[in-house]
Specification:
184 residues, alpha/beta, Rossmann fold, 6 helices
Amino acid sequence: MRAVSATLTADERVVAAARRADWRFLLPDPGLGRVAYVAPHDPALVAALAVVGAEVELMDDPHGPGGHDVVVLTGAGRASVGGAAGLLAPGGRLYAETTGPAVRAWSRALVAAGYEDVEAHWLWPDPDACREIVPLARGPLRHALGRRDPGARMRGRARAATLLAASGAFALVVRHAAVIGRWP
C-alpha cells in the first residue's frame, strides 16, 4: 500500500488490500477456494488472498499435490506452466502476471500445455493499484481506449494506442498483463 494508507480506516485498508486480488472476478467463482501460489511471492498479493478468504499454499516450485482450484504465478517463468497443471483440479484456473511483450508467449505456452479458454488482460495501471482490467482483444481495447479523453497533450498517445489496439499490437506495449487458462 502507498503512504496514503495511514489515513485510511481499518475497513478501507482491508478493501485496498483486497483490490490486489480483483482479478478473481475474471474467474467463474471469485471465491478462489484452494490456491497454490508458486514462488516468487508478492507479499501484497499474499495478504490480499488472505483478505478475500482464499486457502493459500505458498510453494517454492510448481510441483506438488494437485486438487487446487487456482494456481498463481506472478514472477515464475513460462516453464512453470506444465508443472502448474499438475497442481490444478480439473477445471481449475492458472493466473499468471506478466509484461505485455511476453503475453503472446505465455498464451502460446498455456495452449501448448493443454490449457483451454486462454485469455489475456491488461492490468491498468499496475497489479498493485489496478483500476481497470481490460481484455487484450480488439473490441474491448478500442472501447476502453476510446472512452478516455486525457486532454489535448495526451490525445496523440491515446490515438496511437487506439491504432495499436486495432492492429492487435497493443499487447506488446502494455506494462502489466495477466494470462488466465482453464485446465480441462
